[in-house]
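Data card: per-record layout.
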Amino acid sequence: MKSAAPPYAALLTVLFVFASAGGPAEAQLFKRMKAKRAAAKQEQQRQERKLAPGEYEWNPERAPAGPILVVVSIDDQLAYVYRNGVQIARSTVSTGSPGRDTPTGVFTILEKKKEHESNIYKGAQMPNMQRLTWSGIAMHAGQLPGYPASAGCVRLPYEFSEKLFGITDKGGTVVVTQRQARPSASSRPASILLASQVDPGSRPNEALVGKTIWVPERSPSGPVNFLISGRDQTIYVYRNGILIGQSPIGLRDPHRPIPAGVFLMLEGTDAGAAPVVPGRPARPWAALSLEKEWGPRVVEDFRRRLYIPPEFATRLYDLAKPGSILVTTSGSSTEQTRSATDFTIMRPEGR
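The structure for this 351-residue chain is written out next.
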């Protein structure tokens, strides 16, 4: 993430000190700072350069390893690819045409096929297909006229689709948002698929909200993801799409909604101790807003407000691995207590 620019007055003070010091060491440091600012400005301009339909940028050397996050912005008609929290690529796309909109939300890659023919539109070829829903939404190579023109899928330039296909895995995370990315926001609440096949019996139960459950034997292996519901004040744990545990959480200032977003665990560790598991090293997370723009301290504030019982928090810490997803919502996770009909925390889908 980019750090905030220093206040204008402070920047003037820094420039004055270096300009008046006059020594060779200070002059060299000033030159390095100036060159660094120029390079940062150039990089920002490069990222903001408008891409022509079918054009893309691919720079995997920026982050050679780590979990992949793909963000598709409908307003931008662009896809952004992040590896271990660093943007390594962006590409023009074509999303769903009016009336056949591409759904916004958080999805996992359910299936990958180099050569695929549409199950809905017979004869329609979908090279480098990466399925996002069993109901027909996928990323694949296709025509890019410069505007939304698909039947709901995300069309990609052919070469870009090949490169993306080569670095993603089944179960990888794709976020489709309405508005511009970095950070991004969705025009409506997200439909969240936490695994390639979410067990229909794993929907949170209203009668069990606020209770502690731990049954890891329900799903002994597979990717682990987490869901925090501010309305339920509960954290849910899924492994391979099956609910294996949940626990009540505490929220300071419970009247304030929690930020709705997606957190992707990165490789490595951060300085200091983990906020909810004292004595363990902190882990880095990439954060993406889903409902509205986040200020610079939103995530820090949420961490300060969140309390997870220590024993349960330790279990989560041991389960989480680079690539694990934490989804947060201020709404309820249960169908019984959900008030808005378009609000779906989890949508189990079969073939």
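Known properties of this structure: The longest strand covers residues 86-92. The domain at 56-177 is CATH 2.40.440.10 (L,D-transpeptidase catalytic domain-like).

See the next section for split statistics.
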